[in-house]
Amino acid sequence: MIAKDYFRNANVKAFTDEEREDPYLRTMESNIAIPFNLTEDNNIPMSFYFGPNKFKNLREYNMDLERQIPLGWSFFLMAWINRYAVLPVFNFLEGFGWNYGIIILVLTILLKIALFPIAYKSYMSSAKMRVLKPEIEELGKKFTKKEDAMKKQQATMGLYKQAGVNPMAGCVPMLLQFPILIAMFRFFPAAFELRQQSFLWADDLSSYDSILNLPFEIPFYGDHVSLFTLLMTVSTVIYTKINQDMMGASQQQMPGMKTMMYIMPVMFMGIFNNYASGLSYYYFLANVITFGQMYLIRLTIDEDKIRKQIEINKKKPAKKKSSWQKRLEVAAKQRGYKGAKK
User: Fold this and answer.
1) CA dist 289 to 105, 266, 268, Å?
2) 74 belongs to a structural domain
3) H or E element: which one contains 141?
4) Model pTM greater than 0.85?
5) Does 229 reside within a domain?
């Protein structure tokens, strides 16, 4: 309902009445305040929109109606990514008349191609860390005592600097991809196009794809089994294992992170079990395509060549320490001093 600037305020609610037998029926309530003068006639022009909550349709009215679709927060780039990248590509592919499962597949491939340069840098960083792994292990054998933790950390950072390797280089590309992952998390449940669209065993890509209804409810999981969610979880666990094998040297510095990376897919399985199957299908496809990318990149990366370059870097004159590195060393020394004092 549209009344330009006449509405003073509104309180709109949508809820399920627990007393009704039909659990699919929603109850809607609204209280809307409008200006009213008892001493004269009142005339407030209003109009109604009856139609799908489809972004393209709502935008054509030039009234910001499309803002009602929850595409994410603009300050975190999610809404911009969905509005100016994902939606145009999705609508373009929709014009071919393909099944929406195929459209999601092509969309995923295009996104992975666009992100390939970032992924390549991440894998290159992993390769460098693998080359340095034997030397990192030697430092671990050299500094075995707890009081030598600060010395071990300084020696490790010194080795990274001498070899010209940034241990955070593999994390930065992942952080750059994070807004896109979250944007897709908001896009698929909000996409009107997916409603009642079937693909393979999923009857509706905008809802969960239950292949088994349980006679009981599992806390934090639900009373059904969604196959796409299971496939996504299994592929994520496999990806985590492969990625940790590739990042072995740095993972030894953060043993707690290794356990957390396996817990997260199980947590997501409980969350995604009741989400849109199109979303789980997308994440599953992204994992499968990533496996292919990792295999191809590993075929093209020559670790012997990387090892030779690292040896050349070690022979170069040491660079001056940055102010950030100096602050890190001062903080590490202070922690070591306090630990020795205790």
Assistant:
1) 10, 21, 20
2) no
3) helix 116-142
4) no
5) yes
Does residue 172 sit within a domain? Answer: yes
Q: Which amino acid is at 150?
A: M
Tokens of 59: 């935008």
- Give the count of beta carbons closer than 10 Å to the beta carbon of residue 191: 26
Take residue 54 and report the two structure tokens written for it. Answer: 């489809």
Please give, one letter per residue, the 3-state secondary structure of 80-129: HHHHHHHHHHHHHHHCCCCCHHHHHHHHHHHHHHHCHHHHHHHHHHHHHH
Q: Domain span at residue 147?
A: 109-323
For every one of its 342 residues, what pLDDT tens digit does the chain have, with 9 covering 90 and above?
Answer: 888 888 888 898 988 877 777 767 888 889 989 888 888 888 888 888 888 888 888 888 888 888 888 777 666 667 788 888 888 888 888 888 888 899 999 988 988 888 888 777 777 777 777 777 777 667 666 666 666 666 666 666 766 666 666 666 556 556 666 777 778 888 888 888 888 888 889 888 888 888 888 888 888 888 888 899 999 888 888 887 777 766 554 444 455 566 777 788 888 888 888 888 888 898 899 888 888 888 887 777 766 676 666 666 656 665 555 565 556 566 656 655 454 444
Which residue, among 56, 5, 21, has the nearest Cα to 193 in the 3D structure? Answer: 56
Question: Which residue from 170, 141, 199 is spatially nearest to 257, judged by alpha carbons?
Answer: 170
Residue 167 phi/psi, 5-degree rounding, is -65, -20
Give the CA angle between residues 274, 275, 281 to the nearest 5°.
120
Query: Burial letters for 98-112: b for 16+ Cβ neighbours within 10 Å, e otherwise?
Result: eebbebbbebbeebb
- The answer as to whether 58 is a domain residue is no
Q: What is the tally of structural domains in the chain?
A: 1
